[in-house]
Design brief:
60s Ribosomal Protein L30, Chain: A; 6-stranded mixed sheet; about 260 residues; alpha+beta; 2 domains; 13 strands; 7 helices
Length: about 260
């Protein structure tokens, strides 16, 4: 009989984080304030804005040069011209948009506005994704494992939208210390059929659970400690293992090719 460990999620409240603060110190201090320590197999899900703020990934809107192309896109999709310019700079590809948002690819992820966000950013500023979310997760994990002398996983969480579904869900944009995907292929279903396709994105499932507690407003829950998650600890685990080629993706392969 398989023993199932209860999944526990502990919200970790943060102070207002300032540019240049050391991320692992902020996380450790916030854990201590909650009276929580880390145990082997824990996953620490950290809000991307906390990471970006510590890394200085914040841009003053009016410091950006606005190109004619940015003006055209801003006018077409009713987006602030400065914000549009930043999105153009951050995006790897652009497919189109709706009023207020461009549909982009960033780091191999289909996401609105290339992860650029005004919400919970200082007035007149926009927050970008961390420059290398996997590296950010890896550095944070190394520091936490040294501090707590145990093995843990770390993921960087942001919110994104799902096609034809209202509202946002959590997304793991950076991963370190565990395998992000659980492969069910070659296992049997309830009726003995061999599973041929199904893989479970554990990292995104955990990100969605964490995002539910983090919220989207002024909750100040900068991280969620996830205990009892069905993860496989692995030093080589990172977010690229959860990505797939466009020609194999049901949605992206139907979009055609965007423009840069």
């Amino acid at each position: 009989m398989v023993r199932h460990v209860p999944l526990t999620l502990i919200p970790i409240h943060f102070p207002v984080v300032r540019v240049g603060q050391e991320l692992s110190s902020v996380v450790a201090a916030s854990l201590a304030n909650e009276g929580v320590t880390l145990e082997r197999g824990d996953v620490v899900a950290v809000a991307s804005k906390v990471v970006s703020t510590c890394e200085g990934r914040i841009v003053t809107l009016r410091s950006v040069l606005v190109s004619p192309r940015a003006k055209r896109l801003a006018r077409k999709w009713k987006i602030d011209t400065y914000l549009t310019s930043i999105v153009l700079r951050e995006a790897d590809e652009i497919f189109g948009g709706v009023p207020g948002f461009l549909l982009t690819v960033k780091n191999g992820i289909l996401t609105p506005n290339a992860g650029v966000d005004l919400k919970n950013s200082p007035p007149g500023m926009a927050t970008l994704w961390p420059g290398d979310p996997d590296r950010s997760a890896r550095n944070l994990r190394a520091n936490l494992e040294r501090r707590y002398t145990t093995r843990v996983g770390v993921e960087i969480v942001d919110s994104h939208v799902t096609p034809l579904r209202l509202g946002t869900v959590g997304l793991a944009i950076g991963v370190s210390g565990f395998l992000p995907v659980l492969d069910s292929r070659k296992r049997s279903d309830l009726f003995g059929r061999t599973i041929k396709v199904t893989q479970t994105n554990v990292a995104d499932d955990l990100a969605a659970a964490a995002q539910l507690l983090m919220g989207e407003a002024a909750e100040r829950i900068g991280a969620v400690l996830i205990r009892g998650a069905p993860v496989t600890l692995n030093n080589s685990g990172y977010s690229k293992l959860a990505k797939m080629n466009r020609d194999k993706c049901l949605i992206a392969s139907s979009l055609g090719t965007g423009y840069y």
